[in-house]
Write a structure and sequence with these properties.
mainly alpha, 6 helices, 148 residues
């Protein structure tokens, strides 16, 4: 329960810290500390956290296993569609490029700013949807509809 605090102006600066119990799916991330160089160094960590997480032994509830399966299925689908791709026209290439840039940008923003696995799983959905569209556009189905 909150503890009431009364402060009276006296000209001194005070540092106030509020501690709350953390969430169960918190993960440590490397601080950026207002440094562009550190921001660039954190790109691999940001992409790994936002695309690949949760890992098997990450903290959190049992719902993390569904999120893990989602990541695995998406990755397998993207690899499969890469090997089963068809020839694309210029418009399709432009759409795929835009979707990939959108997904990477969103994954980076999420990875740089979100240290909670549950939030990462919710926030990354638009980027994952863009990658599904990329896979569907590039995929060459092997269906035969002829009636011989």
């Amino acid at each position: 329960s909150p503890i009431p605090v009364k402060l009276y102006p006296n000209g001194k600066k005070l540092r106030i810290t509020y501690f709350t119990p953390g969430c169960r799916s918190f993960i440590e991330t490397t601080p950026i500390n207002e440094s562009f160089v550190q921001l660039m160094k954190n790109i691999p960590e940001a992409l790994a956290n936002s695309y690949l997480r949760p890992y098997l032994f990450d903290p959190g509830s049992r719902l993390k296993y569904l999120s893990m399966l989602e990541v695995w299925f998406l990755s397998v689908f993207l690899v499969f569609s890469l090997f089963q791709r068809r020839k694309l026209n210029a418009v399709e290439k432009a759409i795929i490029f835009g979707m990939v840039v959108f997904a990477l940008t969103l994954f980076l923003l999420i990875g740089w700013t979100t240290p909670v696995i549950g939030a990462i799983a919710r926030y990354r959905f638009p980027a994952q949807l863009a990658l599904v569209v990329v896979g569907l556009i590039s995929f060459k189905p092997k269906l035969n509809f002829s009636h011989e």
